[in-house]
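To: structure desk
From: M.T.
Subject: fold request, one chain
Message: Could you run this one when you get a chance? Sequence is below, nothing fancy, just the single chain.
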Amino acid sequence: WSRSKHACASSNFDQRSTSINARQAQLRNDGHVIEPATQRPSFSVDHDYEVLRETELYRNWRVLIQRQVKKKLGGRTIDFEVVGQGGLDAAVTIFVWNSTSKTATLIQEYHPGPHELLFGCAAGLIEAKHGHDNDDDNDETFSLMAQRAAEHELEEECQVAGGTWYELTSQPLAMDKYATTKIKSYLVVDPETVDDPRPLDDEEDINIVVGVSVKDVLRLVRDGRMSIVGACTVLLALEKLRELKEVA
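Reply: Done. Structure tokens follow.
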């Protein structure tokens, strides 16, 4: 912008601020109190909603469910449509880092939802096949299955394996407000190339992009060239890399 445009924008902002302040003063005079919140926010996950009924509307690769919920203390009944993945309804994402070059490995693939070719991290569903080979073993946990799924997806989509692994969250994250799927994210540092990697799924067409700088990774996020799930994984991984003194 030119200096004159900056001045004009600043003037417009000042006028809006004055108008807002005047409106707040008028509301106070009318008996309404508008003050900044001083109480610390609560981070509790407890709630008093209960699920009354779930109806499956559609099932294929995705599952569409009508979920009827109600607040326990006099709340009204509300119907929501939520989307899941079927099966274990959970997925993994993996951010790959090279500690020598200080660069990341991303993937680029077609996203049918937004109908765009976007960048992201290796990712995939946690499935029953990621359990123990012995079906009688009842000690299998979600954490172990997620780790195995992440290892498989990393080899399939980035053609690397091994390395040093870090979990990026203490608990899986909800994928979206209206999605039942949970996401477990990882950072892997210095995996090694696999000569004969696991094959991709039939519908996957993936480009492996190596040597991506932190600056370029963040630019892809800011420019909308990555999904929310991929962007979240990137930001969590960079936070962990700063903790490890890998990036500034």
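Reply (cont.): The chain has a mean pLDDT of 85. Let me know if you need anything else for the meeting.
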